[in-house]
Design brief:
CATH class of one domain: Alpha Beta
Number of strands: 7
Order of helices and strands: HHEHEHEHEHEHEE
CATH architecture of one domain: 3-Layer(aba) Sandwich
Shape: globular
Distance between the termini: 45 Å
Largest sheet: 7 strands, mixed
Strand content: 15-25%
Amino acid sequence: MDDFSYAHRDTSEIGAKGTARFNVPRIPSALEDVRRAAFAREIPVAGDETLAFLMTQTAACGANKILELGTAVGTTAIAMACACPNAKIITVERDENFYKEALANFKKCGVSERVEAVCGDAGEIIAELDGTFDFIFMDCAKVQYIKYLPRLKQLLARGGVLAADDVLLYGWASGEAEVPKKRKMLAQHIEEYLYAVSHDSELLTCVLKVGDGIALSVKTN
């Protein structure tokens, strides 16, 4: 297993049953090679179901500007670039090893000109961004979701979509599994995020059992 600066686990088997069997992303062979190598090294990249969902959602909203928080080795950014061939993407990653590998993968998959990778703290970077985005994918430190929400709402265009990944936390947030003592604060932060987006007058939100849970919010005004 590679030595990266924060905890990760192999996600290649997530969503292998049920409707996930039919959610097969249409991706180029170069990206499939990147994903296969990442799974083998237990790097946390999106499974088929999550990837197919992201691609259909970004394509459906006709996203031209996309922001991603949590690049890892670049698989989701590449997939969204494939789904939206005219889109410009900014993706943020705090781990320098992941960041460098993602740059190489963007070049390998032919999307370097449309994907701008930034290495640094997501909170600091989003504070400096200008303009608005049609689609925001948040897959960074889960405890920061609630902290980043106000700024992400500012960055989201009217009618834009905010997708927050892994919000069901292995069933902890939904009450389907007992929360380990060491993870109670993490689960609490995610529940706070889910409550916030579900009760925000400017957002329409649906929480879906896709992968390990995605909260999909649309900015209505």
